[in-house]
Write a structure and sequence with these properties.
The chain has four domains: about 210 residues, no CATH class; about 110 residues, no CATH class; about 110 residues, Immunoglobulin-like (Sandwich); about 100 residues, Immunoglobulin-like. The chain is about 25% helix and about 30% strand. The N and C termini lie far apart (about 115 Å).
């Protein structure tokens, strides 16, 4: 029985037959617990599916969601309270790991700092992963929580375990006999639903297939995280960098001599697999993997003993596939550093830039902005001869859209870059990244983009009107109107033809095109405008509206 429960572990005298039976019962409850939780998720998905037709509901009448939910709840209630608490704790711990992995996958693919995952997707991935391990899908050894550790049971032997007299239990007392009989009865009762489950068709998801789950970013399946190099720190604190090349074969290539290079397996999503020179592994304590210019670094704590859930598998280059010398547990993920506005940042030797101004511009400020779009305008100071076409200066909005700038505008040491982005109704976050040729990582600025002001808001805030006057003609049905406009803002102010209106007795008077409004008012500019108005009645007063201001004019 001992070999049945713990693979490759020496037998001890502390594990009695009674405890072994308890472990088997715990494993059986663990499988039932995981399957019941998946059933509850299935029911929830069925009930929430708006595409489910009445015909499909009729076909499920014998196995309704309500029935399946009730059966799953009953199975969970039958699990002892203490054991159920242990199961919940184990699930929560694994769920945190799974959520972190799925978020890392989305973040790596999209370049976004913040990602949102459906809670049901994380829950299902967690339960399926744990169930695959509990059933021993790939190894034949089922893993389950027991006390403060994880144990393993050989599934085939448990399902066909020997008769009670082969447990070696001695009949030393009536109490022991009664206790043994109770445990055996419980084990038989718990095994019945397990056997029914084992013959039911099902799909298993192993750890290696975790990232093959239907996780998508903007309806695109994320690619594997690319690796370019590794930095190893040994037990003495010595640091060494190893370039890593992609490897898709079944055997790691041999590294000649002391060549400081390695490989990473580009066909395995999780755990990540790498090989390094054998002599580098012996004293390896920490390993940091580097990705592309916009991919965070990952740091792993290295150990010779395999943890229950390794995040990294390390082999000696030249070793056979599946032969691991060290194991890594994720320690931290280091995102790109965030640069600050109005701070000098070095691109490369002799090339320093400063991001000075970030503006979001809509049609209210510039009428030629395409409909349903905004302009994001960046002002950067730096060398006049800087070749922006080689810097891959990209704006990425929080929904994952990557936008490239239009032709730069240069004035002295200031460059303006413009990005056309879809309009948004609430403030959003964005990232601006610049990658110098040959750089190991991009430089990134985090931006908070506010919605631009409307035309009406700009007129109310920055337009001043004064010196309004009217000179009626001798004929009495026309007049020359004059007024002075002033832009009190620091940016040009565009006026539209319909910003100027004249009414008499609630009837709008047709105005000619006003040429003085064709050009925007520059910052702090003052401009006098003259308009000849035809069709005015001399016996009625006129109402002049310019932006937010209204003026009553006596025609007498």
């Amino acid at each position: 029985m001992q070999a049945l429960l713990e693979r490759k572990r020496p037998s001890t005298n502390t594990n009695t037959t009674l405890e072994q039976a308890e472990q088997v019962a715990t494993w059986q409850d663990w499988v039932i617990y995981l399957k019941a939780q998946l059933t509850l998720l299935d029911v929830q998905q069925i009930e929430a599916d708006p595409r489910r037709t009445s015909a499909e509901a009729f076909e499920l009448a014998a196995d309704t969601p309500e029935t399946r939910r009730a059966e799953a709840a009953t199975q969970l209630k039958r699990i002892p309270s203490a054991r159920r608490t242990l199961f919940d704790k184990t699930r929560d711990a694994r769920r945190n790991i799974v959520q972190r992995e799925l978020e890392d996958a989305q973040r790596t693919s999209s370049g976004r700092h913040r990602v949102m995952l459906d809670a049901d997707v994380v829950d299902r991935a967690t339960y399926e992963q744990l169930l695959s391990e509990a059933e021993g899908t790939t190894t034949g050894w089922g893993q389950f929580p027991y006390g403060d550790s994880l144990r393993q049971v050989e599934v085939a032997k448990v399902l066909n375990r020997p008769a009670a007299d082969e447990y070696g239990i001695t009949q030393d007392s009536d109490a022991a006999m009664k206790r043994r009989n109770v445990i055996l009865i419980i084990a038989i009762l718990l095994a019945t639903p397990l056997l029914m489950y084992m013959v039911t068709p099902r799909s298993a998801v192993s750890r290696a297939a975790l990232l093959q789950l239907p996780v998508k970013v903007n309806d695109v399946t994320p690619a594997l995280w690319q690796v370019t190099a590794a930095t190893g720190i040994d037990t003495n604190g010595a640091v060494k960098r190893y370039p890593l090349a992609a490897q898709n074969g079944t055997r790691w290539p041999r590294i000649r001599g002391t060549e400081p290079t390695g490989r990473w397996h580009n066909q395995t999503a999780y755990p990540m697999e790498v090989c390094l020179p054998a002599q580098a592994i012996e004293t390896l304590a920490t390993l940091r993997l580097h990705g592309g210019v916009d991919i965070p670094d990952r740091t792993y704590t290295i150990s010779a003993a395999a943890p229950a859930q390794p995040d990294l598998l390390v082999a000696a280059c030249g070793a056979a596939s599946g032969t691991w010398a060290r194991y890594g547990t994720i320690k931290e993920v280091t995102p790109l550093a965030t640069q600050a506005l109005n701070t000098l940042v070095t691109l490369s030797e002799g090339q320093d830039i400063t991001l000075k101004v970030v503006r979001v511009i809509g049609q209210g400020e510039e009428p030629d902005v395409p409909a349903n779009n905004y302009r994001v305008r960046l002002q950067i100071t730096g060398p006049k001869d800087l070749d922006w076409s080689t810097l891959n200066a990209t704006l990425t909005t929080q929904n994952g859209n990557e936008v490239y700038h239009q032709a730069p505008r240069q004035e002295g040491d200031t460059t303006e870059l413009e990005y056309l982005v879809p309009a948004f109704t609430a403030p959003i976050d964005a990232a601006w990244t610049v990658t110098a040729p040959g750089a190991k990582q991009s430089l990134r600025w985090r931006l908070h983009l506010e919605t631009p002001p409307t035309h009406e808001a700009l007129m109310r805030q920055f337009l001043q009107v004064s010196a309004v006057g009217l000179q009626p003609s001798t004929s009495g049905n026309s007049a020359l109107m004059q007024f002075t406009l002033r832009n009190t803002g620091l940016e040009p102010l565009h006026l539209m033809q319909n910003d100027l209106q004249v009414q008499q007795n609630t009837v709008r008077v047709q105005l000619p095109m006003v040429s003085e409004l064709d050009e925007p008012l520059a910052a702090q500019e003052e401009r006098t405008v003259s308009v000849k108005i035809e069709g005015l009645r001399p016996d009625l007063e006129a109402m002049l509206t310019i932006g937010k201001d209204r003026f009553r004019i006596d025609m007498q």
